[in-house]
Amino acid sequence: MDAIELTQISIDYGARSVMANLTVRLNRGNVMVVTGQNGSGKSSLLRVVCGLQRPSAGQVRFIAGDQAVAPAEARQQIGWMAPDLMLYRELTGLENLRFFADVRGLGIPDAELNALLERVGLYGRGADVVATYSSGMTHRLRYAYALLHRPTVLLLDEPSVMLDQRGHELLEAVVAQQRMIGLTIIATNDPREQRFADVLIRLEGSA
Q1: 127: exposed, middle or buried (C-beta count within 10 Å: 0-12, 13-18, 19+)?
Q2: pLDDT tens digits, residue range 167-200?
Q3: CA 79, 182, 117, 187: dihedral to nearest 10 degrees?
Q4: Model-level pTM greater than 0.90?
Q5: Is the pLDDT of residue 205 over 80?
Q6: What DSSP letter does each residue of 137-206 carry, written as one string?
């Protein structure tokens, strides 16, 4: 994916407007950071981009080369991570990744899945059930889920919540690698993450 264009995006919940007429373009290699108080629409904007939520008005356009990409095709290139992303606690870390890979029809060998677990800091823990993971380990597994299919568009909602300093180093590494293959949108209020921004959006919606 070479660009995402958001044109006149508005998000309303009943009579309450949390976002009005947002227009921005994000190019390949760029990181957009979205900040704002609770209820300002940060997470909602990410859901709109990935197609989990329709905007009240406006359009999301994905571009490859100089051609628009159909939304269904674009969704196949999106990686999503959020604190409320549900994983199967009764399965192991490896079994979770294998399941999600199979659902996508990827057929990824276990060796590659284990390498991904190592990349996110879960080396040696792939055979443990997720119910035994700490909150930080579970969040690392969410990173593995988001990166599973090598997405060109990566959406990260509160990416360092529950993570220690080494977890923040993981985020830095993920963002740096994503710059080489696509683009990233981060919803956060963490000042450390705002410095990633090539494009910084400050939302003013009220809770």
Answers
A1: exposed
A2: 899 999 999 999 999 999 999 999 999 999 999 9
A3: -50
A4: yes
A5: no
A6: HHHHHHHHHHHTT--SEEEEESTTTT--HHHHHHHHHHHHHHHHHSEEEEE---HHHHTT-SEEEEE---
